Amino acid sequence: MSEISGALKIGTTSLVLDLLEGRFCPLNIELADPIAALKAISRDPTLKTVVPLIGGPTIGPVDIQRQYLVAAQQRLGGRDEETDWVLITWEQALADLERDPMLCRDRLDWVAKKWMLDAFVEAEKLSWDDPWLQSLDLEYHNVQRDEGLYAELMRQDKIQRFIKDDDVRLAIRQPPRDTRAYFRGRCIEKFAKQMSSVQWDEIAFGENDHESVVRLLNVFDDDDVARYNAAIDKAPDVATLLRNLEMIRR
Amino acid sequence: MPDPYAQFPERIHRPNSPAPWEKKKTDEAGPRRPDVDAPDTKELLKKMRRVDPNQAKRYRQRTGE
After folding, report:
1. Distance (Å, rounded) from C-alpha B63 to C-alpha B65?
2. What is the pTM for the complete model shown?
3. What's the number of domains chain B is made of?
4. Region for residue A79 given its phi and psi (left: phi exceeds 0; alpha: psi -120 to 50; beta: otherwise)
5. CA of A249 vs chain B CAs: smallest distance (Å)
């Protein structure tokens, strides 16, 4: 739900992938049992759990991330403003998590939720196995603006935001031009009546024995996406679109 | 199609801030520090009390978990 959470999740993953592709990932943090480590860390809201590395030493979750952060700062820092924003926000989040995880209640969903539930448990004198808390956990994610608990945090200005509502409204109807979502959206806009089905990775035109399927699963190269999107923009009808896509695929 | 944001509650209006990776006018980079004082939870708790305690159980029954 949190915009900062989402941006950090996607942003840090993207930077780590860049490190992997460049062979710049730190080499000294190979976990002895990654699955057990994941479970142990995810169940400790204090972030004090340490997990074993191969060879014997242990490491805490913030230190694991910090090693990747330092590598990303050294290799990728300064390349563009978006990368620098992720690095600064990541560093600040780790510093606050280490000092006191509750400092991140205005940025990270799990901390915001924990903070809300802590307050409720204390106010209502509940135990942590009370099913009411599970209902509150669920309600945090209710996207109805007048019902959801995350929406209430936004309303009370208790959560950081950086996305404007006008940009969200625009994005509902106008996907980025360099994506397959643009192609799908334009097909629906222009040729909905001739479509028999649409899925993430394919669109079917026509019906019964005369169905033609446009497959998008392997259309992710920037140039291919651009050609597909140019084809849908220019096509006056489905037959022309299919013909032009066939030429692109050759 | 109705605007899903039409029912969005009034937000506290602040000066338009640039996208986070655009240069800010101040020297500070990155998100602002949170207010470390304990925030008021009265309104939030009121909202939370209105949540049906059995909602999660009904959700599990509907989804077959």
Report:
1. 6
2. 0.73
3. 1
4. alpha
5. 36
